[in-house]
Amino acid sequence: MQRFTDSIRAGAAVDGRARQKVESLYPRREVMERLVDEDERRFQEAVERAIKDFIPVRDPGGNPIKVPEPVSWVAQLYLKDLDLEEVAFELGVADPKEFESQIRASRELQNLGLAPLLRGDSLSRELWQGQEGGVSRSLYQRTALSIGLGTPILGDIN
Fold it and tell me: What is the pLDDT of residue 147?
């Protein structure tokens, strides 16, 4: 958990009732630290309960094992740049070498923006899934369509 230092309580340039209000809204440092410690403990216990059936959280002696917080870990995986293998897997192509051959053989795929993958470069997640510049379909959707993996759904699907 990222800790912080409150500067509002000590830095408030008010008196009287306004000062009382500030002090009621912003507890003293030691009180806030105790509250944050308690919140962190409750969060860690909840994470342990949520993941214990999937990820070992205790060693055989019952001692806690430090495991990464799973939500941010998964989010970071999702937000990172994509290499050729990851792009292939997102498209459902089981063999990245086959996908690489498709890109090499297709000027259309290269012009879509997949050529950097052939050089070992990666694509940003924003480029892969975004619809910037007035383009109605993401690069993911245009690639899937180009290699015959279906027709992307556009607009609201409610």
Answer: 93
Same domain, 44 and 84: no
Quote the Cα angle for 20-26-28, to 5°: 95
For residue 75, the SS3 value is helix
Return the CA Rg of the chain: 25
Range of the domain at 18: 8-71
Retrieve residue 153's tokens.
């759904």
Question: 107 versus 68: which is more confidently predicted?
Answer: 107
Within-domain flag for 131: yes
Q: Which residues contact 85 (CB under 8 A, 6 or more apart)?
A: 96
pTM of the model: 0.55
Percentage helix, strand, coil for the chain under 3-state DSSP, each rounded to 5: 55, 5, 40
Same domain, 66 and 89: no
